[in-house]
Write a structure and sequence with these properties.
Number of domains: 2
Structural class: alpha/beta
Number of helices: 14
CATH superfamily of the largest domain: Metal-dependent hydrolases
Largest sheet: 8 strands, mixed
CATH topology of the largest domain: TIM Barrel
CATH class of the largest domain: Alpha Beta
Helix content: 25-40%
Shape: globular
Distance between the termini: 23 Å
Radius of gyration: 21 Å
Number of strands: 16
Length: 393
């Protein structure tokens, strides 16, 4: 007997490939039913299924897709910095905000002073909020500690926090330390890799870490079989994204200042270009990644919220909407980026699709046409979510 059947599905939209590149086929199945057992899709049939089932759910003719995956977040921190917004709007520069006690170091201080339980509870609530907007899996980075030892503490909290949705842990070299020389800091962060996060990441940019420092850390992670990610070219291009030709990066993220020739190399590689339009909005910048090159060269475009104290958005639907209105992605490109490609960016190789054998992580939307995924913005468009074959809401 089938565990669950979703019947009266108006339209299923999914990638036929993993990952999806511009020009790859997108499969559309109309008037369908989906059979699920043991958390796996075991059947997709035209019309309603005649199979016996423990439970049935009526999609009422609506759109069904994979659930969403958030490929880049900074969810583990304590406190907030809402008071900085009015300063930014009045033209106060970041250096001055730092002098007034704000900026990233204030978040580091608040996170250092928070208990393990406070941090874990805060993370669990954020993951739940993400889930309520359709996210089935998310990456969570460290990065808000005063020293390498406390970065390891944050990694332990990420790994130990219980959540309904899937998470991937990332040990991030975020900002140059205060009171510790950079070489010693990097060596001690390399030592932390013995805790085996899912990924290692570096904020490689002007006034952060150099390409050479980034390569040193990521090479050490690669030797341990840890996945590699990279913040690159958000503030300035200083050669960070060039590392796509040197290391087997799983993702390279931000890419606001990436030169066309390097973007072409990224697109031709198996590295996912993680686009973060919520950050562009919060930075109040007109800069955007070179989507034209990514399209022409059939790059792997993924999406993330980049949730942080400076970009307070846990909603992948909002991220999809902004990818259309700020970056120019079509609704179908946004869907592929937020499902199969973001799952790929997280290392979930068989996730993010609606196919027989795929995990039953699905969304039943309130809409019938995929164009409405980003045409309609500012509201939760999800009718129901199924995670590992269980109806969550």
């Amino acid at each position: 007997m089938i565990d669950l059947i979703i019947e009266n599905v108006g339209k299923i939209v999914t990638s036929k490939t993993i990952p999806w590149r511009t020009g790859d086929e997108i499969e559309t199945i109309e008037n369908a039913s989906i059979e699920i057992s043991n958390g796996i899709i075991v059947g997709i049939k035209q019309g309603n299924s005649n199979s016996q089932a423990k439970k049935r759910i009526d999609a009422e003719g609506k759109l069904v897709t994979s659930a969403l995956y958030d490929a880049h977040t900074h969810m583990l921190f304590y406190g907030e910095r809402s008071w900085e917004l009015s300063l930014k709007l009045n033209g106060i520069k970041y250096d001055e905000i730092l002098k007034r006690g704000g900026g990233i170091y204030s978040t580091i201080e608040a996170t250092e002073n928070a208990s393990d339980d406070d941090l874990s509870n805060s993370l669990a609530k954020r993951l739940e909020q993400a889930m309520m907007n359709g996210t089935a899996g998310a990456e969570v980075k460290t990065g808000y500690a005063k020293n390498p030892e406390n970065e390891k503490r944050l990694l332990r909290i990420i790994k130990g926090t219980k959540s309904v949705i899937n998470t991937k842990s990332t040990l991030l070299m975020h900002v140059p330390p205060k009171g510790l020389d950079r070489e010693t800091y990097i060596k001690r962060m390399i030592d932390n890799l013995d805790a085996y996060p899912d990924f290692a990441d570096v904020f490689c940019d002007k006034e952060a870490f150099t390409p050479e420092e980034s390569e040193m850390y990521l090479r050490a992670a690669k030797e341990k079989g840890i996945g590699l990610r990279l913040h690159a070219d958000e503030i300035e291009y200083i050669g960070c994204s060039d590392l796509v030709n040197v290391l087997q990066l799983k993702t390279v993220d931000h890419l606001l200042k990436t030169p066309p020739d390097i973007m072409k190399e990224i697109a031709k590689s198996n590295t996912a270009a993680v686009l973060l339009p919520c950050t562009a909005l919060s930075l109040m910048t007109k800069e955007k990644p070179n989507i034209k090159v990514l399209r022409e060269e059939k790059g792997i475009m993924a999406l993330g919220t980049d949730f942080s104290p400076n970009s307070w958005c846990l909603n992948m639907q909002t991220t999809m909407e902004l990818s259309t209105y700020l970056y120019g992605l079509t609704p179908l490109e946004a869907l592929m980026a937020a499902t199969v490609n973001s799952a790929y960016a997280l290392g979930y190789e068989n996730y993010g699709t609606v196919k027989i054998g795929s995990p039953a992580n699905l969304l039943i939307w309130k809409i019938e046409k995929p164009d409405w995924l980003t045409y309609w913005f500012g509201e939760n468009k999800i009718k129901s979510m199924i995670l590992n074959g269980t109806i969550l809401y």
